[in-house]
Amino acid sequence: MQIQVVKSKIHRVKVTGADLNYIGSITIDEALMDASNLIEGEKVSIVNINNGERFETYAIKGARNSGEITLNGPAARKVHAGDIIIIISYATLDFEEAKTFKPWLVFPNENDNTLK
Fold first, then answer.
1. What pLDDT does residue 24 have?
2. 3 state SS for the chain
3. Would the pTM of this model clear 0.85, i.e. be above it?
């Protein structure tokens, strides 16, 4: 049997922009992607702390150490600059492997989205 578990999580990061006219996705500072073991194109779930919205998109790299968190395309309608969000990705693992799996959890500085 296989189950889905949390693989990566960037907890409480501030949205820096929303670009409705972009194709889609979420742009994430490359340093945060590396720290959370996210790769470009990976499916992510977004939870908006400010308004309760939950949606899925995919990750693209932003400039390293820029603090950028930009929702692009239709997702831009679900956030505002300054909103606090959680970014989560999941992995499918064998049940026994999942029992010992440790996710990559990142808790950036909420003021500027830098690593603590």
1. 82
2. CEEEEEEEEEEEEECCEEECCCCCEEEEEHHHHHHHCCCCCCEEEEEECCCCCEEEEEEEEECCCCCCEEEEHHHHHHCCCCCEEEEEEEEEEEHHHHHHCCCEEECCCCCCCCCC
3. yes
